[in-house]
Design goal:
Layout (H helix, E strand, L loop, with lengths): L7 H19 L2 H18 L7 H8 L3 H36 L6 H10 L4 H10 L1 E6 L9 H19 L4 H20 L10 H34 L12 E2 L13 H29 L11 H13 L1 H10 L4 H14 L12 H17 L3 H18 L5 E7 H14 L9 H13 L15 H20 L6 E5 L4 H14 L2 E2 L3 E2 L2 E6 L2 H5 L1 H10 L1 H9 L3 E7 H8 L1 H21 L3 E7 L11 H6 L9 E6 L1 H8 L2 H24 L7 H23 L3 H8 L2 H6 L20 H10 L10 H10 L4 H10 L1 H16 L2 H8 L4 H26 L8 H26 L5 H18 L4
Parallel strand pairs: 1-2, 1-10, 2-3, 3-4, 4-7, 7-8, 8-9, 9-10
Antiparallel strand pairs: 5-6
Helix pairs in contact: 1-2, 1-4, 1-8, 2-3, 2-4, 2-37, 4-7, 4-37, 4-38, 5-9, 5-27, 6-27, 7-8, 9-10, 9-15, 9-27, 10-13, 10-15, 10-18, 11-12, 11-13, 12-13, 14-15, 16-18, 16-19, 17-19, 18-19, 21-24, 23-24, 24-28, 28-32, 32-36, 33-34, 37-38
Length: 897
C-alpha cells in the first residue's frame, strides 16, 4: 500500500526551486544569481569540487547591503522550508513503520516487553499506577520564530501534507502549488526579526497554542492505543491517568520582572477559558453522535440519577432540552452538561466545582452506553473526552511558580524585622528555628496583604503569595500548586517559601498544604550538599508535616543548564547522575517518595537530546514512575507542532517510563561495576579542570565577546527575560541559553564537548583501559547516552567555520584560545570513534544525512555573519541583516540555546 506520493528529496528540491522563483520575482535577477553563486560555491567546496572557499568569499565581497539582505533572507527562508520538508519525512517514517508493524518504542513493544519479562497483571497494574509523566513547558527565550512566521509555516505544512497524502487531480495539485507559491511569497515579504521583545503574555499564548491545538487532541489517541494493546494480554488491567502537562510561561518570575501577578492571573484565566471552550466543543460533537432513541435503550440507574440531578438544577433548561430532544436522553444530558460548563466561570450557580464532576457525568454516559451494547461508541467517542478532562482538568496546564532564593530571603528578613525579629543576621540553624516555630504556630506572624514600608522586591513577593491564595480559591489548588526555588543552597531557602505560603493561608499545618515546595539544585555546592539540605528538611517538624499533606512526595529539580555552564559537559553529567542516586538514597532512608524534575534545555549542551534515551539512562533507583522535565524553545515546536510527531513523542516517553519502572520493581538494582564508576571518577574531575581552566584563563571573556555573536544575541527580541542576571559581563552572570546560543552560532559548540578528550585521556594515562570504555559504551545506558550526545554536538561543530569567528578576535587572544579549543575537539573525535567503533561520530544515519543537506546552506550565512561582525560600524540595514543571519543559522542548525 503506497501511503505517500512524495519524498523528502522531492520536497527539498521543489521547495528550493519555488523559493528561487520567489527570490527572483521579489528581489531581482541579480540577487537570484548571487544566491546561486553562493550556494553552488558552498556545495562545491563541501563535496570536494573546489579546494578553497575563495569563490564564496569573492561573491560575498561583491554584494552591497541590499544584496546581503536578500542573501540572508533567501538562506533563512530556505531553512524554514527545509525544516518543514524534514518534518514531513518524519511523519512519513512514522506512518510507514506503523503500517508495517515495525515501529520502535511503541505501545505494542511496551506490552511485549512486559510479557517477555513474565509480568503478571498485578505487576502491570502497579507499574501503570506509578507512572505519571509531566512535560513542563517553559518560556525561556529559545524560540527564534515570530508568531506570524509560525502561522505561515503551518499553512505550508498543511499544503505539503495534502500533496503527500491525498490523491489529487491535476487541477487540485495545480491549485495546491499556486497556494504554496502564495504562502512562500507572503513568508518572504514578512519581517523575520521581531521589532519588539515578546511579553510574558505572548510567551504564555505560544505555549498554550501547542496544548490547545495539538496535545489536547492526541492524548486520547495515546490512551486508546495503549488500552487496545493491553486488552490482548492483560484485559483486567485498568489504565489510569498517565500524563499531566504543566507550564512556567506566565508564572516563572526568576530573573524576569515582567512576570507580574497580573500576568499570572491573565494566564490562569485564559487557559481556563480555552479548555472549557474545548470541552464544550467536544460535548457538542458528542450530542451529534449520541442520538439514541429512549425506546431502544435502558439508561441505567447511574445515568438516570445524574440526569435527574441536572433537571432539578436547571429546570427551565431541562424543559427546553426535553422539548427539543423528547426521546433522546443523552442529548438532554449533554445540553445540561454544557450549561454547567458555561457557569464554571460565571456568577450564576450550578457550574461544575471541579473537573472530577465533569468526569463523573461523562462516566455515567459511558456506563450507560456499555449497558446498551454500544461499547464501540463509548470507546471511540466518550472515552477520549474522559481522558482529556483527566489530563487537562479545568486549567489546561498547571502552572509552577518560580523565583530566586535571594528574593525570598530578603522578603522574610524584612517582614520579620518589622515584627522585631532578627532573621538576616542569624546562622542557618537559627533561621531554621525561627521559621519552624512561625510555621507551626496557629496565629499569623506577618500580614502579606499589608507588609508596610518594604523594598520593591519584598512588596512583589508578598503580592505574589497573597495572590496565590486567591488563585487557588478561584481556579482550584491543582491549577497552581508548585513553587520552584532557583539556586537553593540551604534548607532555610525551602522553609522560607513554606513560611510565606503559611502566612498566605495556602498552608495550614498539620492539616493542609496546598503547595509542593521544590528546591532547584543547580550548583556544585547544592548538589554535593544534597544530604545536608534534604536530610535537614525531612527531619524538620514543619516540613515533614507539609510532606505528609502532599502524599509524602518530594519533588526535587535538577538544573542541567547552569551545572553544565559551571562544570563543563562531562563533569556536569556525571555530577547529576551521582547526585540523583544520592537523592534516591536520602529519600529512601527517610521513607519519602521522590519525583525528580529534570531541568533540561533543548540543546545537548543544556541536557537535551532524545528524551526516550535520557529516561532509560536514569539510575534505576530514581525511577519512581513519576517524572517531570522541562520542554523549551524550538524543542517544543519540533516535538509538539505536528500531531503525528506529538503523539509519537508521548508514546515513546510512556514506553521508556513504563519499562524503566517495571525494571526498578522487578528486582534489586544492579550495581554499576566499580571499574566503570572509577573510570568516571577519573574522567570527570580532569574534564572539569580543563573546562574551568579555559574559562578562567586571562582574556577569555574578551575572546568570547569577539569570537561569537553574543553582543548581537543579547539584543535579539527572543524572549521577555533579560539575557543576563545583572548585566555584568561574566560567564557566571550570563544565562545558559545565550551562552550556548553564541557558541552554536559560531559552529564551535564547546558547551557540548569541551573537556571530554582531556577527561578520557586522564583516565587512560592513569592506567585505564580502552576496552573498559568500550564495555561501558555497550552496556551502560548512562555512558552511552552521554557519549552519543557529546558526539552529536561535535558533529555539529565545524572548526573551519569556527576559525572564521576566531579571526575576529585580537591576534593574541586568538592564538591563546583557538588552537586549544581545536585540539580538544580533534582529540575528542578520535576518542569517540575509537570507543564506539564507528566511522562517524553520529550514530543515526538520518541525522548525518540532514547535516550533510544543511551544511552547504549554513556556510554562506556564517561567512556573511562574520563579515558583518567585523565591521566597526554598521548601518541600520546591516544591523537588520546581521540579526537575520542569527535567525537563519539557528534554523539551519535547528538549535539556539
Amino acid at each position: 500500500m503506497d501511503l505517500h506520493h512524495r519524498t523528502v528529496r522531492q520536497d527539498v528540491r521543489e521547495l528550493g526551486a519555488l523559493l528561487g522563483d520567489v527570490l527572483e520575482e521579489q528581489s531581482s535577477t541579480a540577487a537570484f544569481e548571487a544566491v546561486e553563486d553562493l550556494r553552488t560555491a558552498a556545495i562545491d567546496y563541501r563535496d570536494g569540487t573546489l579546494r578553497t572557499r575563495e569563490p564564496l568569499r569573492t561573491t560575498l565581497g561583491s554584494l552591497d547591503s541590499d544584496m546581503e539582505a536578500a542573501a540572508a533572507r533567501a538562506f533563512t527562508t530556505y531553512f524554514e522550508l527545509i525544516n518543514l520538508a524534514e518534518e514531513r519525512e518524519r511523519v512519513r517514517a512514522i506512518r510507514r513503520d506503523e503500517q508495517e508493524g515495525r515501529i520502535e518504542d511503541s505501545q505494542t513493544e511496551t506490552v511485549a516487553s512486559l510479557v517477555e519479562r513474565d509480568a503478571d497483571a498485578e505487576t502491570v497494574q502497579r507499574v501503570l499506577d506509578d507512572v505519571l509523566i509531566q512535560p513542563t513547558f517553559t518560556a525561556h527565550p529559545t524560540e527564534a520564530h515570530r508568531k506570524t512566521v509560525k502561522a505561515k509555516l503551518r499553512a505550508i505544512t498543511g499544503l505539503l501534507e495534502d500533496l503527500d497524502e491525498r490523491r489529487q487531480t491535476d487541477a487540485e495539485r495545480g491549485s495546491a502549488w499556486n497556494q504554496l507559491e502564495a504562502e512562500v511569497t507572503s513568508l518572504w515579504q514578512t519581517p523575520q526579526v521581531r521589532d519588539r521583545a515578546p511579553e510574558p503574555e505572548d510567551e504564555a499564548r505560544n505555549v498554550q497554542w501547542y496544548l490547545e491545538n495539538t496535545l489536547f487532541d492526541v492524548v486520547g489517541d495515546v490512551y486508546a492505543d495503549l488500552e487496545g494493546t493491553l486488552a490482548e494480554e492483560y484485559p483486567e488491567v485498568d489504565v489510569p491517568k498517565l500524563f499531566e502537562f504543566r507550564s512556567w510561561a506566565g508564572s516563572d518570575r526568576d530573573g524576569n520582572p515582567a512576570v507580574t501577578v497580573d500576568v499570572t492571573s491573565e494566564t490562569l484565566d485564559r487557559q481556563r477559558s480555552v479548555v472549557l471552550s474545548k470541552y464544550r466543543e467536544d460535548l457538542k460533537r458528542l450530542s451529534g453522535i449520541l442520538s439514541q432513541d429512549a425506546a431502544w435503550i435502558t439508561p441505567g440507574d447511574r445515568f438516570e440519577s445524574s440526569l435527574l440531578d441536572d433537571r432539578e438544577r436547571f429546570p427551565e433548561i431541562a424543559s427546553e432540552a426535553q422539548e427539543r430532544y423528547p426521546h433522546e436522553f443523552y442529548r438532554q444530558k449533554l445540553k445540561l452538561m454544557r450549561e454547567r460548563l458555561e457557569r464554571v466561570d460565571d456568577v450564576r450557580p450550578g457550574g461544575y466545582d471541579d473537573a472530577d464532576e465533569l468526569v463523573a457525568d461523562l462516566e455515567a454516559i459511558d456506563e450507560s452506553l456499555r449497558l446498551n451494547d454500544a461499547e464501540s461508541i463509548a470507546d471511540a467517542y466518550v472515552e477520549p473526552v474522559i481522558r482529556k478532562v483527566e489530563t487537562f482538568g479545568f486549567s489546561l496546564a498547571s502552572l509552577d511558580l518560580r523565583d530566586h532564593q535571594k528574593n525570598h530571603t530578603q522578603t522574610v528578613g524584612e517582614l520579620l524585622e518589622g515584627q522585631g525579629l532578627d532573621y538576616r543576621d542569624r546562622d542557618e540553624a537559627g533561621r531554621i528555628e525561627v521559621l519552624t516555630e512561625a510555621i507551626m504556630q496557629d496565629a499569623p506572624v506577618v500580614d502579606l496583604s499589608n507588609p508596610g514600608d518594604v523594598s520593591d522586591t519584598t512588596a512583589r513577593v508578598c503580592e505574589r503569595f497573597a495572590a496565590l491564595r486567591r488563585w487557588q480559591r478561584e481556579y482550584g489548588a491543582d491549577a497552581i500548586d508548585t513553587y520552584c526555588i532557583s539556586m537553593t543552597d540551604e534548607p532555610s531557602h525551602v522553609l522560607e517559601v513554606l513560611f510565606l505560603a503559611d502566612q498566605a493561608g495556602v498552608v495550614s499545618l498539620p492539616e493542609y498544604s496546598g503547595l509542593d515546595v521544590v528546591p532547584l539544585l543547580e550548583t556544585e555546592r547544592a548538589l554535593d550538599g544534597a544530604r545536608r539540605i534534604m536530610g535537614t528538611l525531612f527531619e524538620n517538624e514543619a516540613y515533614s508535616a507539609a510532606l505528609d499533606c502532599r502524599d509524602n512526595t518530594q519533588e526535587i529539580m535538577l538544573g542541567y543548564s547552569d551545572s553544565n555552564k559551571e562544570n563543563g559537559f562531562l563533569a556536569a553529567n556525571w555530577s547529576l547522575y551521582r547526585n540523583q542516586r544520592r537523592l534516591a538514597n536520602i529519600t529512601d532512608e527517610f521513607g519519602v517518595t521522590m519525583r525528580l524534575f529534570h531541568g533540561r534545555g533543548g540543546s545537548i549542551s543544556r541536557g537535551g537530546g532524545p528524551m526516550h534515551e535520557a529516561m532509560l539512562a536514569l539510575p534505576l533507583e530514581t525511577v519512581t514512575g513519576e517524572i517531570k522535565f522541562t520542554e523549551q524553545g524550538e524543542a517544543i515546536a519540533e516535538k509538539y507542532g505536528n500531531p503525528r510527531i506529538a503523539e509519537r513523542n508521548l508514546e515513546r516517553m510512556l514506553d521508556a517510563e513504563a519499562r524503566a519502572r517495571h525494571q526498578a520493581l522487578d528486582g534489586p538494582v544492579e550495581e554499576t561495576p566499580e571499574a566503570w564508576t572509577d573510570a568516571m571518577e577519573a574522567m570527570a574531575p580532569a574534564a572539569r579542570t580543563a573546562y574551568t581552566d579555559l574559562l578562567e584563563t586571562d582574556g577569555f571573556i574578551p575572546y568570547f565577546e569577539t569570537a561569537t555573536p553574543i553582543t548581537v544575541i543579547e539584543d535579539l527580541n527572543l524572549g521577555s527575560r533579560p539575557a543576563s542576571r545583572s548585566g555584568e559581563r561574566t560567564v557566571e552572570d550570563l544565562r545558559a541559553i545565550p551562552w550556548v546560543f553564541s557558541w552554536t552560532q559560531s559552529r564551535c559548540i564547546i558547551p557540548g564537548w569541551y573537556g571530554l578528550a582531556t577527561g578520557i585521556d586522564a583516565y587512560l594515562d592513569d592506567g585505564g583501559s580502552m576496552e573498559t570504555l568500550r564495555e561501558m559504551y555497550e552496556r551502560w545506558p548512562f555512558f552511552r547516552t552521554t557519549l552519543d550526545n557529546a558526539a552529536q554536538a561535535m558533529a555539529k561543530t565545524d572548526m573551519e567555520i569556527a576559525e572564521e569567528y576566531a579571526a575576529l578576535a585580537p591576534t593574541e587572544l586568538r592564538e591563546r584560545f583557538f588552537p586549544r579549543i581545536r585540539g580538544e575537539h580533534e582529540r575528542a573525535v578520535e576518542l569517540v570513534l575509537e570507543i564506539t567503533g564507528r566511522d562517524d561520530t553520529l550514530r543515526r544515519p538520518w541525522l548525518r544525512e540532514s547535516l550533510d543537506r544543511r551544511n552547504p546552506y549554513v556556510d554562506p550565512l556564517n561567512y556573511l555573519q562574520t563579515r558583518l561582525l567585523a565591521r566597526d560600524e554598521r548601518t541600520p540595514s546591516e544591523e537588520r541583516t546581521l540579526r537575520l543571519t542569527v535567525k537563519g543559522i539557528a534554523a539551519g542548525m535547528k538549535s539556539t540555546g
